[in-house]
Amino acid sequence: MRYAAFILLVGMFVIAGCTATQKGATVGAAAGAGLGAIIGHQSGHGGQGALIGAGAGALGGALIADAVDKKNESVTKFCPQCGIRFDDPKMTYCPYDGGELKPVEDKASSVPSQQTTK
Questions:
Q1: 1, 28, 32, 57 — which has fewest CB within 10 A?
Q2: pTM
């Protein structure tokens, strides 16, 4: 039991410094290995099932996390009060007037183009 807790603690520290794609791959590999071991155990090949499941889970988890990362990076927002655009996905309020930022649906939208992003 102590060994499992130690492995879990070390794993948490290792994952803390990873990118979102790496975290997704790790979570996918762990879930895939668990499910693969359960399914493989039914046919007497738990180890092989765990390896196949870990590989498939890592690939799926990395692809999903990468897609989510790219979607979050490409969000352009604008302030409805002043019309200024912002490309920072973490920004939620306009630093100039405090208005809540709204996502731009289309890059060629009706938001005034003479006002640039900061």
A1: 1
A2: 0.51
